[in-house]
Amino acid sequence: MRHTDTFTDNLDADPEVDAIDETINAPSISDREVIAPCYDGRGRLLPLFRLWMRDGYTLLSHAHTPGEAMGNAIDDARTIIERTGMARRMTNHEKRLATTVDCWQQVG
Q1: Rg of the chain on CA atoms, in Å
Q2: Is the whole model's pTM more than 0.70, yes or no?
Q3: Which residue of 51, 55, 85, 90 lies most exposed, with the fewest beta carbons within 10 A?
Q4: Contact 12, 1 (CB under 8 A)
C-alpha cells in the first residue's frame, strides 16, 4: 500500500499511516474561546475566571469573586462526574483531584 499526501479518496490507503500523518500534520486549533457574557441581578458584567483543577482540567466560570468561581468549578466538576457515570470508574483519589482547584486566573 502506498501513502499519498493528497486529500483525495484513496481506497488503498493505510489507516495507520493516515493516523500518523494526521497526528504529525494536525490542523491548527484557535486558542480563542468564545464565552457569552454573564450579568448579575443588577445588570453588572461578572468577571470571568479560568480555574485549573488538580487533575489537569480547566473550567471557566463567571462569578463575583475568585472564591465563588472556585465553588462553581467544584460544583461543575462534580456534576460532570455524576452525569457522565465516571464516578463508578474513578477512585476516591481521582475524584478528589477532579474536584480540587489548583489555581485560578481572572481572564475577563
Answers
A1: 21
A2: no
A3: 85
A4: yes
Confirm whether 8 is domain-assigned: no
3-state SS class at 58: strand
**What whole-number distance in Å separates Cα of residue 80 and Cα of residue 28?**
28
In a domain, 70, yes or no: yes
Number of domains comprising the chain: 1
Q: Which residues pair with 61 in a beta bridge?
A: 49
Q: Is residue 63 part of a domain?
A: yes
CB 39 within 8 A of CB 89: no
Domain range for residue 40? 33-106
Q: For residue 98, is it within any domain?
A: yes
β-pairing verdict for 58-62 and 101-106: unpaired
Cell numbers for 50, please give them: 479560568
Q: Residue 74 and residue 101: Cα distance in Å, rounded? A: 7
